[in-house]
Every structure is written in C-alpha cells, then in structure tokens.
Write a structure and sequence with these properties.
about 15% strand; two-stranded antiparallel ribbon
Length: about 80
C-alpha cells in the first residue's frame, strides 16, 4: 500500500525543483528507484502515460507483447 505522506513529499520536492505546481496527471519518478532519495537529481516528472509506458517497456510487459503471448497461448489478452 502506498504512503500518502510519502507521495506528497515526492511531489513537493519535485515542485521545488521545477519551480511550479505539478499537474494532477504528472508522476514523480525516482531515477534510482529509491523513494527515500528526494535529491533533485533523482527526481523526474513525467505524465502518467509516459511513466507507465517506460516501466512497462523496461519490464517487457508492453501491451503488444502481452497480447502476442496470450494469442500464442490461446487465451484472451484482455
């Protein structure tokens, strides 16, 4: 389960870095994947869709690959 206070801390640190408020569709990504590291160099702000796509690509779980795997296994993709 996600910690609401931690989420707020990430967003505030990113807002200080950018000098503006974040939009609701923006995600704070930790480059080194250590959510306790709030250093400006570790924080990237991305749209929710870009962030999800990058994680999926990194994990090899793109929708296309998932759909192809399901097709080969003879089951529904979604």
């Amino acid at each position: 389960m996600r910690d609401r206070k931690s989420d707020i801390a990430h967003r505030r640190a990113a807002e200080r870095k950018l000098g503006r408020k974040l939009r609701k569709d923006e995600i704070v990504h930790h480059a080194n994947e250590d959510k306790t590291d709030q250093s400006p160099l570790n924080l990237d702000v991305k749209s929710r869709s870009v962030h999800t796509a990058e994680h999926n690509r990194h994990r090899g779980l793109s929708k296309l690959r998932s759909a192809l795997r399901a097709y080969r296994e003879g089951r529904k993709a979604y």
